[in-house]
Design a protein that fits this description.
Strand content: 25-35%
CATH topology of the largest domain: TIM Barrel
Number of helices: 13
CATH architecture of the largest domain: Alpha-Beta Barrel
Distance between the termini: 36 Å
Number of domains: 3
Structural class: alpha/beta
Bound molecules: alpha-D-galactopyranose
CATH class of the largest domain: Alpha Beta
Strand order of the largest sheet: 18-17-16-4-3-2-1-19
Length: 562
């Protein structure tokens, strides 16, 4: 068990067994054999602000600083809002002379490191964005194939949140190269070891075939595509530990991109891409640098990518690993405490990221983009409410950034939207203009309705509850829903939702809640029911019935009495 997790259990006085169970549920998915992504952050859903929903591409360093300043002035840090995130369009279309991303030279002229420092000086952590593709959604430089250098750049800047989009993605080929031989050379020396294809142990669909063009061996391994076969070379003896150049001798015959991974000694994985064949010769070479131990080594060669989902999972896992590696490296180099980067996967739910997101990052978008419209909010809620099994401390479903305060959402819609995100244990990343909360004389406009909503501590407490359990829908008739979210101290949150635009009656029985397997609410004659938005408490024995206006919710926190 990771130290961070143990500490979290201790500090919050939680039951380690229940938490391990939850954790096991989350770790059940071992996509590509990966473990749960645990960088010690986002043990409750991350909270902050991001630029996209309101500003789109019209951002600059002054806006970001002004937002951080306004967030501080409105005391949002005290409520748990931690991150100030710059979304798309912060970067220049030019990488710098060292191949590093840099801020737009005209709109972020002071550079991102300076912006991080400014945001930190207001007490917030800075977030940044690129895409798991060759370009961002706004066609600016991105991090696919630049994972290491970009992760290091972000870590060096002191960034603490990273949203990784999916535009311009290039899937990893499911096809594997056909292997004629493997050549090994100590770094800087000539090839010394030749492993012929017939020396490999072949498993699954892997097969030894013949091609007379591959002189002098005439043989090659095929059938390693789609995770269906593996070739293993054992007992590769080298005189000393260190960096070696591994050259795959491949059969050039297929006019498609190819991919394989080489697992050395069962621990280190090296990825290798071979391009679609164009040249006339049959024999191709593909190289990677591997670390070998003194004595006998093994190489397992395969392509574990069998689908688009495997590809997305692997690419996000790669970036997650690079982020963790980079923050550790920077901490080691500077002697300063590590600043882990909260990793936000923005893959729009295309490849069921809830199945593998917990192996790759801290949160994963469940759907395409949100809009400040009731239909969009409800559509996203519907897609996310059923995914309760996948969320938990450290790894969350992300129904997208909040639109509270944007567009023409009514007060009821804003309240319902915020309440649903609280119940869903969703990240609370604001998307509105925080500067509007501050009056001209610099004082806070506490009458601002949007500020009142996003700073309702009792609603936030439901979202930030330490158990980290996403709500479940226990009742629906298509028009109205009843949602239940277990909370610490044997309490429970209940949300009644009217999705339609006319008023509707909604009811539930508290006694029935005590029979729900996932709820730990004691059986009692009487319960205190706190109405979060009315800020009133009443006592109830069993049934609660409400008439809800259109597009609105009731949100309760319920506790057994005596
Ligand atoms: C995608 C994402 C959005 C936003 C934009 C930026 O659409 O889903 O949240 O980041 O890209 O271009």
């Amino acid at each position: 068990m990771k130290e961070s997790f143990k500490k979290f259990i201790r500090q919050n006085n939680l039951c380690p067994v229940c938490h391990m169970k939850k954790l096991m549920a989350a770790t059940k998915v071992h996509v590509n054999g990966a473990d749960r992504f645990d960088n010690g952050v986002a043990l409750t859903p991350p909270m902050g602000w991001a630029s996209w929903n309101l500003f789109r591409n019209h951002i600059n360093e002054d806006i970001i600083k002004d937002i951080a300043k306004a967030m501080k002035a409105a005391h949002l840090d005290e409520l748990g809002y931690q991150y100030v995130n710059v979304d798309d369009c912060w970067m220049s279309s030019l990488r710098d002379e060292n191949g590093r991303l840099q801020g737009d030279l005209a709109t972020f002229p002071s550079g991102i490191k300076a912006l991080v420092e400014a945001v930190n000086s207001y007490g917030f952590k800075m977030g940044i964005y690129t895409s798991n593709g060759t370009l961002t959604c706004e066609d600016l430089p991105s991090s696919l194939y630049h994972e290491r250098i970009d992760a290091e750049t972000f870590a060096e800047w002191g960034v603490e949140y990273f949203k990784y989009d999916f535009c311009h993605n290039e899937p990893i080929p499911t096809l594997a190269p056909e292997i004629e031989k493997v050549l090994i050379a100590k770094k800087g020396e000539k090839e010394t070891i030749t492993l012929l294809s017939e020396q490999a142990e072949l498993r699954g669909d892997a097969i030894l075939l013949e091609d007379e063009n591959l002189s002098p061996t005439g043989k090659y391994i095929s059938g390693l595509s789609n995770g269906a076969g593996t070739a293993i070379f054992y007992d590769v003896d080298v005189p000393e530990e260190g960096e070696y150049t591994l050259t795959l001798g491949i059969r050039k015959a297929v006019r498609k991109d190819k991919y394989c991974e080489i697992i050395v000694n069962g621990v280190n994985t090296y990825a290798l891409r071979a391009p679609a064949t164009k040249g006339p010769s049959r024999q191709g070479r593909n190289q990677t640098s591997v670390y070998l131990k003194k004595g006998k080594n093994s190489f397992l060669i395969h392509n574990p990518i069998g689908s688009r989902m495997d590809s997305a999972a692997r690419q996000y896992q790669n970036m997650g690993k690079e982020l963790m590696r980079a923050t550790k490296k920077v901490a080691l180099e500077t002697g300063k405490p590590e600043k882990p980067i909260c990793f936000s996967i923005c893959e729009w739910g295309l490849n069921r990221p809830w199945k593998w997101g917990a192996t790759a990052g801290n949160l994963w978008r469940t759907t395409p983009d949100i809009l400040p419209k009731w239909s969009s909010i409800i559509g996203i809620y519907e897609a996310t409410v059923r995914l309760y099994n996948y969320a938990g401390p450290g790894n969350w479903n992300d129904p997208d950034m909040l639109e509270v305060g944007n567009g023409n959402l009514t007060d009821n819609e804003n309240i319902a939207h915020f309440s649903l995100w609280c119940m869903l244990a969703a990240p609370l990343i604001l998307g509105n203009d925080i500067r509007k909360f501050i009056k001209e004389d610099g004082s806070v406009d506490y009458n601002n309705k949007v500020l009142k909503i996003i700073s309702n501590q009792k609603a936030i407490a439901i979202n930030q509850d330490k158990l980290g359990i996403q709500c479940r829908r226990i009742k629906t008739n298509g028009f109205t829903d009843v949602l239940v979210k277990p909370l610490e101290n044997k309490e429970v949150a209940v949300c009644l939702l009217n999705k339609t635009n006319s008023s509707k009656d909604v009811s539930f029985s508290i006694k029935e809640l005590t029979n729900l397997g996932f709820v730990d609410l004691p059986v009692s004659e009487r319960y205190t029911v706190y109405d979060i938005w009315e800020n009133t408490t009443f006592v109830a024995g069993d049934n609660i019935s409400e008439n809800l206006g259109g597009h609105s919710v009731k949100l309760y926190r319920i506790k057994a009495m005596g």
